[in-house]
TrEMBL record:
<dbReference type="InterPro" id="IPR036244">
    <property type="entry name" value="TipA-like_antibiotic-bd"/>
</dbReference>
<dbReference type="GO" id="GO:0003700">
    <property type="term" value="F:DNA-binding transcription factor activity"/>
</dbReference>
<feature type="domain" description="HTH merR-type">
    <location>
        <begin position="1"/>
        <end position="69"/>
    </location>
</feature>
<dbReference type="InterPro" id="IPR047057">
    <property type="entry name" value="MerR_fam"/>
</dbReference>
<dbReference type="Pfam" id="PF13411">
    <property type="entry name" value="MerR_1"/>
</dbReference>
<dbReference type="Pfam" id="PF07739">
    <property type="entry name" value="TipAS"/>
</dbReference>
<dbReference type="InterPro" id="IPR012925">
    <property type="entry name" value="TipAS_dom"/>
</dbReference>
<keyword id="KW-0010">Activator</keyword>
<keyword id="KW-0805">Transcription regulation</keyword>
<keyword id="KW-0804">Transcription</keyword>
<dbReference type="GO" id="GO:0003677">
    <property type="term" value="F:DNA binding"/>
</dbReference>
<keyword id="KW-0238">DNA-binding</keyword>
<protein>
    <submittedName>
        <fullName>DNA-binding transcriptional regulator, MerR family</fullName>
    </submittedName>
</protein>
<dbReference type="InterPro" id="IPR000551">
    <property type="entry name" value="MerR-type_HTH_dom"/>
</dbReference>
<dbReference type="InterPro" id="IPR009061">
    <property type="entry name" value="DNA-bd_dom_put_sf"/>
</dbReference>
Length: 245
């Protein structure tokens, strides 16, 4: 068993945050007669799972809900997250290779095709979009629509890359997010999701737009096209959505 200070040292979670987890019922350790908190091996294992979910971008409210599931369900969910993380890691390795080629190109003027410049910029993480759509349309409808992507992943990736590259270019040009060019780009992006993924309502598309700037993973990826591109694209999407309502 571990006293709270030791649990904090091992996990890297501050004592204050461990107290907060206890207060909100996320992780409540054992308590001795004098009120001292101490953590069993099982509770330390739970803390590890919480940290995994936090790293993956889940809110404490979402994590608390997930932790109410039985062990088998949590394990299956973690396995799915592991698969996604492995895919992300593959993308990062590709990005590293692309970045190295870019540096070589700039330093030694080594030839690099336009297509090579955008290898690794992947925006086909539709699992999060899919979950939003399931809430609105139901699992059967969404599962059928996801079939449309099979065999077209690379084509979809390149189309997404083109759109975000154009958003970044418009930002550099000083175009307002409300400009005609950006509204048209937002429509292209919306049509792309509808064509390759699911029948995306304006409401869901608006949520996706906010996800671009609020989800750290999405924001980091999109901002590789140019700092601030994620927020810029989000603002354009909201203008597009509000304009067609």
């Amino acid at each position: 068993m571990y006293m709270i200070k030791k649990a904090s040292e091992i996990s890297g979670v501050s004592v204050r945050m461990l107290h907060y987890y206890d207060e909100i019922g996320l992780l409540s350790p054992q308590k001795s007669e004098n009120g001292y908190r101490y953590y069993t091996e099982a509770e330390m294992a739970c803390l590890q799972v919480i940290l995994f979910y936090k790293y993956l971008g889940f809110s404490l409210k979402q994590i608390k809900f997930l932790m109410t599931k039985d062990d088998i369900e949590i394990l299956n969910h973690l396995k799915k997250q592991l698969i996604l993380m492995k895919k992300e890691n593959e993308n990062r390795l590709t990005l590293i290779e692309t970045l190295q080629k870019t540096i070589d190109y700039e330093e030694r003027k080594i030839t690099m095709s336009t297509k090579e410049k955008f290898r690794g910029f992947v925006y086909q993480d539709h699992q999060k979009y899919k979950e939003m759509a399931i809430d609105k349309y139901g699992k059967d409808v969404v599962e059928k629509s996801m079939e449309k992507q099979k065999g077209k992943e690379q084509e979809l990736t390149e189309k997404f890359n083109q759109i975000f590259a154009l958003f970044a270019e418009n930002k550099v040009k000083g175009l307002k997010t409300t400009s005609k060019e950006n509204i048209e780009l937002s429509q292209r992006l919306h049509d792309l999701i509808c064509q390759y993924s699911f029948d995306c309502s304006f409401e869901v598309f608006s949520s996706i737009g906010y996800g671009y700037k609020e989800n750290p993973e999405f924001k980091t990826n999109i901002d590789r096209f140019g700092m601030g591109t994620a927020e810029y694209a989000c603002d354009a999407i909201q203008k597009y959505v509000n304009g067609v309502k």
